[in-house]
Amino acid sequence: MAYVGDLAKLFSGSSLTDNANTGVVKLGDGRVVCLTETQKGSLVIDPNSLETLGRFEYSDSLGGLIHSAHPIVTDAEFLTLLPDLLKPGYLVVRMEPGTNERKVIGRVNCSGGPAPGWVHSFPVTQHYVVVPEMPLRYCAQNLLRAEPTPLYKFEWHPQSKAFLHVMCKASGKVVTSVEVPLFVTFHFINAYKEEDEDGRVTSIIADCCEHHADTSILDQLRLKNLRFFKGEDVLPDARVGRFKIPLDGSRNGKLEAALEADEHGRGIDMCSINPAYLGKKYRYAYACGAQRPCHFPNTLTKLDFVEKKAKNWYDEGAVPSEPFFVARPGATEEDDGVVISLISEKNGGGYALLLDGSTFKEITRAKLPYGLPYGLHGCWVPKK
Ligand SMILES: [Fe+2]
C-alpha cells in the first residue's frame, strides 16, 4: 500500500517543489512568468512591482509534472519539452502568445533508458528543435523524495549512452537521432544549421556549457559548499561543448570544445546571446566563467567563437548572475549593446553591473539597497 501511496504522491507532484526560482521569461503577450523544473512552479509576476499575481495555469490537458526549466521564448511562441517518465521520451510543445494552451508539435522516443534524460534546457535552430538525451536521467524514486539525494532527482547512467534528436518544427517529424559522446550540461547556448556550397543543410551545430561528462558539479553547487571559500580551487572544469549533428543519416555526432577552455578559466555556465541570433549562426556568447582558485563561477566572460578568444570581467569576491545582452536600438553589429548582470558582493551587498557588449569594459554599476542571494538567471523586460 505504501507503494500505491508513493505513486499517488508522484502523480500529484506533492514531493516536487513549486519554488519558481530558476528563471524569468517575458512571454510574447507581455506576461512575465517565473519558472522552475516543475509545471506547478510557474508563477505570473508584475514586472514593475515584482508582486506575485498567481499561478500560471496551463489550460490544456497534457498533464505531466515536469518540463524544461528554460523554454525557448520569442514574441511569436513559447516552446518547451515535457519529459514522459512512463514511456521514456519527450513531447515537444508550443504555446502561442495570449493563450495558456500548449499544443503538441511531436514526440521523441528515448534511444536509451530507463528514463528520459534531464532537460534543464534545449536549443533550437530556425526550423528544428534539438532534443537532448543526457545519460543523467530522471529517477522516479528520487522525484518522490523531498530530501535531496547525491544527484537530486536524477541518476547517472553512462551505459545508457547519450543522444541528440532533431525534430522539424513544422511537421513534428524526427529527422535524425544520433549518438554523441557522454555529456553533462545544464545550459544550451544556441544552435544553427550548416550548409554546403549549394545551400543544402548538412548538419546542425548545437553549443552548450559542458562539464566533461562529470556530475560532480551538482554536488559542488550545494549551498554548504558555496558559503565557504577556503582558497582551494574546487570548481570542476567546464568548456563550451560544440555538438555537430550530421543530417546525412550518419548514426553518430561529434562533441568538441568551441574554444580553448583556459580562455574563460575552465569554468562556464549561465550563458546568453543576443536574442536576435536565436537559432542562427552567431559569433558571441556571454556567460559566467572562472578566475581560479575558486569554488563558484566568479567572472563574466564574453566568448568570441570566430577569434576563439574570451574577454573577462572579474571583481574579487563578486558572484555574478547570468549576464544578459540588450541590443542598442538600431544596432547592426551582433555585439552592439550592453550586458547586464546582478552581482552579489563579498560584503553581502549587491549591484547591477553594466558592461559594454563590444569592449566588455565596465560602463557603470548601480548599488542596490539590499543584499542579493547568489544569482541564477535573469531577463530584461523593456519598459514600453
Ligand atoms: Fe538554468
From TrEMBL:
Binding site for Fe cation: H70, H120, H187, H377
GO MF terms, alphabetically ordered: carotenoid dioxygenase activity; metal ion binding
UniProt keyword list: Dioxygenase, Iron, Metal-binding, Oxidoreductase
Cofactor: Fe(2+)
Keyword Iron: yes
Nucleus recorded as keyword: no
Gene Ontology terms: cellular component: chloroplast
Family per similarity comment: Belongs to the carotenoid oxygenase family.
Protein's UniProt name: Uncharacterized protein
